[in-house]
Amino acid sequence: MPEFAYNIRQYYPQQRQELLQVIAQIETYPNAAERVLTKANLIMLHCDQVDPHTAMIVKQELLALDGDALVSPHVYLGQSTQPTNVLAWANERSWRTLCGKFQAIPLPALQALAQQIGALLLHNQARGSLKLGATQWDWGRKTLVMGIVNVTPDSFSNDGLFEAGTSQIQQQALEFAAAGADILDIGGESTRPGASSVSIEQEIARVVPAIQAIRQVCQLPISIDSYKAEVVAAALEAGANVVNDIWGLRQADGSWNMALAQLVAQAQVPIILMHNRVSTVEQFAHGTNYAASEYGDIIGEVCAELRQSIELALQAGIANDLIVLDPGIGFGKSPEQNLQILRQLRTIASLGYPLLVGTSRKSMIGITLNRPVEQRLWGTAATVAYAIQAGADIVRVHDVAAMVDVCRMTDALIRHEG
């Protein structure tokens, strides 16, 4: 071999466990890992609508810390007093130094930036956990699988158990549990575009017997897929443990769902806040209906609207560690918009909350692959594997046994502890 064959290769700091192993092989000092990771991990942050003065301070301070920031040319040329979006980057150590400096400056804009950046950095280190009775979920340790149990007559995936007897519902729950599901999601109203609305009484009559039947044979946590406070109250009384709200504490008219927020806060149960928008049903070229809304910056708007839902939840008294987010794949978004959200899912995960992703059998898969709903297993598998590596903590699926295998294999690749 040549005398100086250094075998140079690149390591990617995002693979934290891999990098920790390399550090341990070379240097054994207790603080080696933290020292290396904070200098090696380049973090890029996007900030919306920053006033020009603050934007220029951020840029100047980052330049002094070997980072940088992009701002509107009109701002750094002094030609505008309008806010600018800022795209900034630095390593973790520099960001922490910047936060410390901004916190000491008596300017509210800089202190707010420091608080929000600090919260994001904290999320990148400690994920926390959620305890549901005897069950504890340690976020980041493994991907949780949510099995879908529809008790509707008009599910888009044709798997509704509306006419099934108690024994068939119990059988599905037991099969999901045996296959490795971590939670069951019970829904009594179809959310597909164009589905008929269901009265509160009808929905309760569907979900409560199903929950009671499952509770007789299975102790897996149960989430109730409903945004109606009366339905949720009845479901929790019947044995449900989690609330899955497809409107993120909003109502169809855009107003806030205070009744549900207060109910969840009083019950002290976890809530999944999904991003959704009122939208119009559009007709795709080959005849598939989907619902789409107009977006400018879809990722920025999804993040902003999820933050609004979080703020309401916290104001209502829901504990911060009981909140889970869902970007709402297939809800108020076109197929391409859904794919865009998946591609940038890590940005949504950076909000600092556990993330649920539901792509199972969705129309974006059918349109991309030209497959009917019953032939979307492999497309679903691809999206599930991608979502996990991009930050998903829970995946909501119809085909539990197959997707448990996908999750365990993907976990072995990206979540291993070395």
UniProtKB/TrEMBL annotation:
InterPro entries linked to this entry: DHP_synth-like, DHP_synth_dom, Dihydropteroate_synth-like_sf, Pterin-binding_dom
Leading EC class: transferase
Assigned protein family: Belongs to the DHPS family.
Cofactor dependency: Mg(2+)
Record EC number: 2.5.1.15
Protein's recorded name: dihydropteroate synthase
PANTHER family (alphabetical): FOLATE SYNTHESIS PROTEINS, FOLIC ACID SYNTHESIS PROTEIN FOL1
Catalytic activity: (7,8-dihydropterin-6-yl)methyl diphosphate + 4-aminobenzoate = 7,8-dihydropteroate + diphosphate
Domain (Pterin-binding): residue spans on this chain: 143-408
Keyword Transferase: yes
Keywords per UniProt: Folate biosynthesis, Magnesium, Metal-binding, Transferase
Pathway(s) of this molecule: Cofactor biosynthesis; tetrahydrofolate biosynthesis; 7,8-dihydrofolate from 2-amino-4-hydroxy-6-hydroxymethyl-7,8-dihydropteridine diphosphate and 4-aminobenzoate: step 1/2
The keyword Transferase appears for this protein: yes
